[in-house]
Amino acid sequence: MRKILILHSSDNVAVCLSEIGNGEVIEQDGKKFSALESIPRGHKIAIANIELNEGIIKYGERMGHAISRITAGSHVHVHNVLGDRLSSGEV
Question: Considering the domain 4-87 in this protein, what is its CATH number?
Fold first, then answer.
């Protein structure tokens, strides 16, 4: 059963198709990592390490940037991402 959905081959995040438990091993689409925390269904999980200020890539497009280092298996959400639209002053 698929646990995550990677929307584009260049993405560094995936969408959780169900709740992912802390420590749960995900082995899918050539990736293998453990969830570092519980992540709700529909939220994003890092599928690669993402460095400070590096782009968050979803759908093959940059949607924001990391405001702290994000390790593969971490929850990717408002606590560690700033949307590019918000950071550029656009509304």
Answer: 2.30.130.110
